[in-house]
Amino acid sequence: MHLRIVCFLVLGVVLVSCKEEKTKIVEPEAIEVVVEKVSTSTYEDLEGNPIELSDYKGKRVLLNYWATWCRPCIEEMPDMEKAQTILEKDNYVFLFASDQSIDKINKFKEARGFQLDFIKFNGIYAEENVSALPATFIYNEVGGQVLRFDGGLKWDSPEMIEKLRAVQ
What we know:
By secondary structure, the protein is α/β, with parallel strands linked by helices. It is built from 4 helices and 7 strands, in the order αβββαβαβββα. A 7-stranded mixed sheet has the order 2-1-5-4-3-6-7, with helices on one face. The chain starts with a helix and ends with a helix. Mean pLDDT is 86; it is low at 33-37.
């Protein structure tokens, strides 16, 4: 007798749980379309304004690719701040490009207090021939890449300052 009751209960649960669910029709005007802003520029400032290296023609550009998680990148930043100060009258612009979010870059900048021009890189490192960070490119006043440095360096050393001043 108990077996019959158990069988009827199981059968009842199965029938109730297999009840057909009504399909809800969603009206087209109820569908929200989310469009993410995708920048077509290679770089952006921290306000989201587009930047291109060609914007700096007439200046020498030191472009450093870095990341908030990259220890050598962070370790060289104080020396880069000093080099930036030393070279400010030598027509140099220092740019620090990361492919991380603007929000993450801003939080890093606020937490660390570096006085550097951080920008967002919207490209792919491999397309820039960057396989490890930090990677630093030096461009002359007409926009030609003239030097490249891979890895963390002592940027404020007299030898490095002389090398950067010699860029034509």
